[in-house]
Design goal:
two-stranded antiparallel ribbon, mainly alpha, Rhopdopsin 7-helix transmembrane proteins, single chain, 14 helices, 421 residues
């Protein structure tokens, strides 16, 4: 901020640099920066949407750092000045050398774009959770839902309005900074308050997810999100309220700014806003790119067998989870008889759908109880339409709010043509 002390800008610089270091370290341990590739071969759910969300979040961090570093550098070089009636205060921008004054607008543009990208990221996450917690049995795909269109429209508004405000008010750096902060904090406050709906309905949503048979890893990720989100919303409110107070005072006419003209309140609210911004952004990083500690430690994901609740099995099944321990064929025979083995996840287990040649299928024909998953329809019996789950199919494969793929409401039927009763 052009009116704050050099120490405040130093704090913002250190905080944003710390966030950037944490970001680099986290992404390295997450997938060794594979998520930064523009196109990842072999990823079924890879697409432009995930890349847009990834870079919209990641670019905001260095932009905040650039803005903070530029202002810190200027303020420590111009120092303090004695102003009659005000005493020694940080040198006003009007007294800065011309080459320093020319750096103010580029720094504020970085600030405006960084805030706009933050709005894009948080608005997408809000719309995603409102979409995912919907109990509608129709299960509209994400890219066809009103939530996606609301995110797209809101993102366009944010990306246009924030830079436009910065350009229109650039003649006075103090007014420029006040209006950028005002517009950005109002939009962020609305998004943050809307997250309270997600917080309130999440416990009942988790109960539905568990009743639908989501796997342990999915339930753990959802519960982790809920815990992190509670902390993040608190720090997010701290950030937006502090900046909103400064901005509201900054746009008052007739040079009457009781908060901004008081060094204590100006520096205190600026520091509180910086701390809230950095901590909430770090928590967003953990939510967007969740690490799996068991997987990093080399442990395979495991599920509980349907046929034996006391026995755990690796998530690698032949025909169904109920027959893995009783499979009469070796891995060699399995490889010889299987021509294509698509694997889908349904409820809390992986299903390996085997298709074999007719001659080979006769040689290794299994009893009907072993050839078909539990509760599926057998040949010759009437196929019944399955009951639509109360949660969106994306929930059963949840990894991250930005890692989306459109899946049918009955993934087992999509692969096999068999509907689960």
């Amino acid at each position: 901020m052009t009116h704050t002390s050099p120490c405040v800008e130093l704090a913002w610089t250190v905080l944003s640099a710390t966030l950037f270091i944490f970001l680099v370290s986290h992404l390295y341990h997450f997938d060794h920066f594979q998520c930064l590739k523009f196109w990842e071969l072999g990823r079924q759910n890879n697409g432009a949407f995930k890349k847009i969300m990834t870079y919209s979040y990641l670019l905001a961090v260095p932009l905040i750092f650039i803005r903070s570093f530029v202002m810190m550098y200027i303020k420590y070089n111009v120092g303090y000045s004695f102003i009659p009636g005000h005493g020694y205060i940080p040198t006003p921008w009007q007294l800065w050398p011309e080459h320093y004054q020319r750096l103010i607008f580029p720094a504020q543009i970085c600030f405006a774009f960084a805030w706009a990208l933050e709005i894009v990221s948080h608005l997408e996450e809000l719309c995603f959770w409102l979409f995912l917690t919907n109990m509608s049995p129709l299960h509209t795909p994400w890219f066809s839902s009103w939530n996606c269109w609301a995110w797209a429209g809101g993102s366009v508004v944010g990306l246009i309005v924030m830079p436009v405000v910065a350009v229109v008010t650039r003649s006075d750096p103090l007014v420029n900074e006040a209006y950028i902060s005002l517009v950005g904090s109002i939009m962020s406050t609305i998004i943050t308050l809307a997250f309270f709906r997600v917080i309130f309905i999440f416990p009942s949503f988790m109960a539905r997810v568990k009743s639908e048979g989501a796997g342990q890893e999915v339930v753990t990720r959802l519960q982790t999100f809920h815990s992190l989100n509670l902390i993040r919303v608190a720090f997010r409110l701290t950030f937006v309220i502090a900046i909103l107070v400064l901005a509201s005072d900054g746009i008052r006419p007739h040079d009457v700014h009781p908060i901004n003209s008081t060094a204590l309140w100006a520096d205190f609210l600026s520091l509180v806003g910086g701390i809230g911004c950095v901590i909430s952004s770090a928590l967003t990083l953990l939510i967007f790119f969740p690490r799996s500690m068991p997987r990093e430690a080399g442990y395979a994901s495991r599920v509980v067998s349907k046929s034996n609740g006391e026995k755990t099995q690796d998530r690698s099944f032949f025909n169904s989870p109920a027959t893995e321990s009783n499979n009469p064929f070796s891995d060699t025979a399995r490889a010889q008889t299987t021509s294509r083995t698509p694997i889908i996840e349904y409820k809390n287990a992986l299903w390996e759908i085997e298709e074999s040649n007719a001659a080979e299928a006769e040689q290794y024909r299994l009893p009907p109880a072993l050839r078909y998953p539990p509760n599926s329809t057998l040949p010759g019996k009437k196929i019944k339409k399955s009951k639509a789950p109360l949660v969106h199919p994306l929930v059963l494969n949840y990894t991250s709010p930005i890692d989306l793929m459109d899946v049918p409401s009955d993934p087992f039927a999509a692969e096999t043509g068999v509907h689960i009763v």
